[in-house]
Request: fold
Amino acid sequence: MWDRFISEYPKFSDKKYVSWYFCNTKKCADELAELVKANIKTATCSLKYWYETAGEKMPRTGEFNVITNWDGVAQCITRTLKLTEIVFRDMTEDLASREGEGDKSLAYWRRVHIKFFSDELREKGIEFNEDMPVIFEEFEKVFE
Reply:
């Protein structure tokens, strides 16, 4: 997919990309990739903890991302527009709705992210708390 993108947009031929999928299950990863392709999901977030302690690379504004499904098949390419650090408990209805999941409400966002982050941290023996900062990443789909 990246090669097709570069042949159509050669001005980005010097750019690099990161390839990844959403979530920790096939069903979720595949569903969220479809939401991005439909321009419904225009944001995501991760715990800042992973960037600080697990060697995960912090996203950067302007960076390209090849979004895959669970099986690693490229679905689309996005470009990071904006990064915001926010404490989990301070998430807003507006930001939560940009993730495009469920009914797009803050209540839904909180419920699924508390579960996801708790599950993620449990593997490290850490308990999630709502004072943890998240990195909120807004993006646009640029190629499919």
Notes: The two ends are 8 Å apart (CA to CA). The chain has one domain: 2-143. Residues 106-122 form the longest helix (17 residues).
